């Protein structure tokens, strides 16, 4: 099979940087972490084993093993083009939507392989939601309808009386309720970028996922909106397992408890150099390449 996508569309995004590289490590050390809500841990544990991925004949991931425990925010970090987004898409079966894409290995959600023939894709995507880089609410649909838009797609029903409660609950969890409670019938497109991203998080939560995947959810947002989303991540961490791709090292340090550092060297497929507790990855990594990356020496 051949790669059908225009290679120019695949070039790494040269516009992405990891912030103020000169003082990164001291800044990371000095930055307070986002408060994580307390309470019983919900969510599910996701385990990727020996995951490799291809686009046509181009192998882009090599034997990736990673456990993403329930109640934990895992940050995927690494230079552009090392396969972080591909890995994220494999975690909820979106990779297979791309023509000529292939993969090997397994992904288990609380023990069940999501790629088993018996598993319905819609159920997998309900349990493992995705928030994208660019907020993508339905712009002409009302705020309220945006929140419940995923229910129909996943075959879930909610009673008329339960609907209002669900909308309020999800918007509250996404940190948006107070700002929009009197604007329920306005279109989603009328919100600011940061509000739209929180609306998308509320929409993801409405189908009651066990895992939320976030692909650079703040890269299109201003610092205030970014901070608000980071707080939301902290508030959600105990009830939904979160996996976030970020180029912002300070953000990774603030929101995650675990980090995985991906690298693809000289045209070889991406792999995980090192993963572990975020504090260790930033202050005392085992591999010198991890140290160099988190200190902004490359990437
Ligand atoms: N649809 C596609 N078709 C073919 N190759 C692709 C496709 N998407 C990504 N790739 C290639 O797969 C490799 C990994 O890309 P991926 O987007 O997963 O990396 P990334 O680490 O998330 O990068 P970035 O940080 O820039 O988003 C790159 O070489 C990329 O060019």
TrEMBL record:
Residues 46-294 form the ABC transporter domain. GO terms for molecular function: ATP binding. It comes from the Bacteria. The keyword Acetylation does not apply. Keywords: ATP-binding, Nucleotide-binding, Translocase, Transport. This is Phosphate ABC transporter ATP-binding protein. It comes from Tenggerimyces flavus. The lineage of its organism: Bacteria, Bacillati, Actinomycetota, Actinomycetes, Propionibacteriales.
């Amino acid at each position: 099979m051949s790669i059908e996508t225009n290679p120019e569309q695949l070039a790494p995004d040269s516009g992405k940087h990891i912030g103020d590289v000169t003082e990164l490590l001291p800044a990371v050390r000095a930055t307070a972490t986002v408060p994580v809500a307390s309470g019983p841990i919900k969510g599910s544990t996701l385990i990727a084993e020996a995951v490799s991925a291809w686009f046509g004949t181009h192998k882009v991931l090599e034997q990736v093993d990673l456990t993403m425990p329930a109640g934990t925010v895992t940050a995927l970090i690494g230079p552009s083009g090392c396969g972080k987004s591909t890995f994220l898409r494999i975690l909820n079966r979106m990779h297979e939507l791309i023509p000529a894409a292939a993969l090997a290995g397994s992904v288990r959600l609380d023990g069940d392989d999501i790629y088993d023939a018996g598993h319905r894709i819609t159920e997998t995507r309900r349990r493992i939601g995705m928030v994208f880089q660019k907020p993508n609410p339905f712009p002409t649909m009302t705020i309220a309808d945006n929140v419940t838009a995923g229910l129909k797609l996943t075959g879930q029903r909610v009673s008329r009386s339960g609907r209002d409660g669900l909308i309020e609950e999800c918007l509250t969890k996404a940190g948006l309720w107070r700002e929009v409670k009197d604007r329920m019938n306005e279109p989603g497109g009328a919100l600011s970028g940061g509000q739209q991203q929180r609306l998308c998080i509320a929409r993801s939560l409405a189908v009651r996922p066990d895992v939320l995947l976030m692909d650079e959810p703040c890269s299109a947002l201003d610092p205030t909106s970014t901070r608000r989303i980071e707080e939301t991540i902290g508030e959600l961490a105990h009830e939904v397992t979160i996996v976030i791709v970020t180029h912002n090292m300070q953000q990774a340090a603030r929101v995650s408890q675990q980090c995985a550092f991906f690298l693809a060297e000289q045209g070889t497929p991406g792999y995980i150099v090192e993963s572990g507790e975020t504090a260790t990855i930033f202050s005392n990594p085992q591999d010198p390449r991890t140290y160099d990356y988190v200190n902004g020496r490359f990437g």
